[in-house]
UniProtKB/TrEMBL annotation:
It comes from Cyclobacterium marinum (strain ATCC 25205 / DSM 745 / LMG 13164 / NCIMB 1802). InterPro entries: Gfo/Idh/MocA-like_OxRdtase_N, GFO_IDH_MocA-like_dom, NAD(P)-bd_dom_sf. It comes from the Bacteria. PANTHER family: BINDING ROSSMANN FOLD OXIDOREDUCTASE, PUTATIVE (AFU_ORTHOLOGUE AFUA_2G10240)-RELATED (PTHR42840:SF3), NAD(P)-BINDING ROSSMANN-FOLD SUPERFAMILY PROTEIN-RELATED (PTHR42840). GO terms for molecular function: nucleotide binding; oxidoreductase activity. Keywords: Oxidoreductase. This is Oxidoreductase domain protein. Transmembrane segments: none annotated. Belongs to the Gfo/Idh/MocA family. Residues 1-115 form the Gfo/Idh/MocA-like oxidoreductase N-terminal domain. One of its GO terms (cellular component) is cytoplasm. GO terms for biological process: NADPH regeneration.
Length: 397
């Protein structure tokens, strides 16, 4: 496929490094940037046919099949609407919108026009993540009760992120969008997120937006999705997820510990990894960053989906739900109360409260707990089904 790239900054380069690597067949053919020098440099670096400071011109190019939006958050809607006007398939980076309202307008526009629209949520495509979701889906962890996702680093790399009007918020919108979608994937996208409790503060930087937040997203089936996001974290980029179910647990570390530790005095100092704060001492580089961050699998899914006429794993609808959850998080942080998540167009299942199943020990008792003691005895805690009385039973070794 022929791809048009909108934006020539940080993520546009990550995407190009992925798309033009490893003998891939889909190619970026042109690029839009508001700055002609940056557009030219990007076009030269990636061997593109053309570049322009006009977004329309790049999208309208008749050989373009798919447009990738790599622009700051406040420009996503305008860019999506231009793709709709041109009738082009569109892939948009995260977050889809600054608010659910914005995201919903984009969702409705692409659906009305019948266009393919993919949400570029790379962290839901890392090889570890895909395998984890598979384990969850095949029941290895039982029912998912609690997910925890953290993205924390010392802050983003461009001015617009730090300006609330352009970005839509601080760490919540920038990083929370990843964490919330990671939680949804594990808990089940079909399960309705109902309310959010969030703490947020501006602990370090002289900015209007929050630079640190911790939130809980409650789902209709009783599961809880925790997110921890920060622009105040020192020591690199901390990307960790945890999934806790009735039958098992998964812990993932996607960046600071990928099994590659390096010590250097600093001689020959170079780029180490995204948001690394040092280039000497013990360092934690990443073998193939794009791969560890999920970009190759993400684009493979997107382009396969276009070819096969199916939806990708991450859609504009997912982007809209994420924005709806984040809207509630902002309101909760302000009010210090649980806030209902307003989803005007819920497409998942309904009425999944009270989905609890208890293990029976025998006809009369529930099995609460079984444990082997240090002396080898097995201890059972049982609850009588009628009287509710707790008893314990010891099976001697
Ligand atoms: N993991 C991820 O998926 C990931 C990582 C980083 C950024 N992003 C997202 O990618 C988007 C871009 O972020 P980035 O890190 O590449 O930012 P960046 O600042 O590095 O690049 C932004 C690009 O947009 C251009 N631009 C900035 N302001 C503009 C304006 N007013 N008009 C026209 N062009 C303008 C810049 O010149 C640059 O080409 C954001 O939505 C961000 O959230 C996603």
């Amino acid at each position: 496929m022929n791809i048009a790239m909108l934006g020539s900054g940080f993520i546009a380069r990550f995407y190009a490094d992925t798309l033009h690597a490893q003998r891939r067949v889909d190619r970026i053919i042109n690029v839009y940037s508001r700055n002609a020098d940056n557009a030219k440099r990007y076009a030269e670096d990636y061997g593109l046919e053309s570049y322009s400071t006009s977004m329309e011109e790049i999208i309208m190019d008749e050989s373009v099949d798919v447009v990738i939006i790599s622009l700051p958050n406040h420009l996503h809607e305008e860019a999506v609407m231009s793709c709709v006007k041109a009738g082009k398939a569109v892939l948009c980076t995260k977050p889809l919108g600054r608010t659910a309202k914005e995201a919903k307008r984009m969702l409705e526009a692409v659906e009305k026009a019948g266009l393919f629209a993919g949400y570029l949520e790379d962290l839901c495509y890392t090889p570890k993540f895909l395998k984890s979701v598979e384990s969850v889906n095949n029941g290895s962890l039982g029912k998912i009760l609690w997910t925890k996702s953290r993205e924390a680093h010392p802050g983003p790399h461009s001015d617009w992120f730090w300006d609330k009007d352009q970005s839509g918020g601080g760490a919540i919108i920038d990083l929370g969008c990843h964490c919330v979608e990671i939680g949804r994937n594990f808990i089940g996208k079909n399960v309705r997120p109902v309310e959010v409790m969030c703490w947020a503060d501006t602990q370090v930087h002289p900015i209007e937006a929050e630079d640190h937040a911790i939130g809980l997203v409650k789902y209709e089936n009783g599961a809880i999705g925790q997110f921890e996001v920060s622009w105040t974290f020192r020591g690199g980029m901390d990307l960790r997820d945890e999934v806790m179910g009735t039958e098992g647990t998964i812990w993932l570390n996607s960046f600071l510990r990928t099994g590659f530790d390096l010590f250097t005095t600093g001689k020959g100092a170079n780029y180490i990894a995204e948001k690394a704060e040092s280039d000497s001492g013990w360092l934690f580089p990443v073998g193939d960053e794009a791969h560890e961050l999920g970009y190759p699998h993400m684009f493979t899914d997107m382009f396969d989906a276009i070819d096969k006429g199916r939806a990708p794993r991450e859609t504009f609808y997912d982007g809209y739900i994420v924005n709806a959850i984040l809207d509630a998080a902002f309101l909760s942080a302000k009010s210090k109360n649980w806030k209902r998540i307003i989803i005007e167009d819920w497409r998942g299942s309904e009425g999944r409260t009270g989905e609890k199943e208890y293990n029976s020990y025998d006809a009369d008792h529930f099995l609460i707990k079984k444990e082997i003691l240090p002396n080898g005895d097995e201890k059972l805690i049982l609850k009588h089904k009628d009287s509710g009385k707790m008893i314990q039973k010891t099976l001697k070794k």
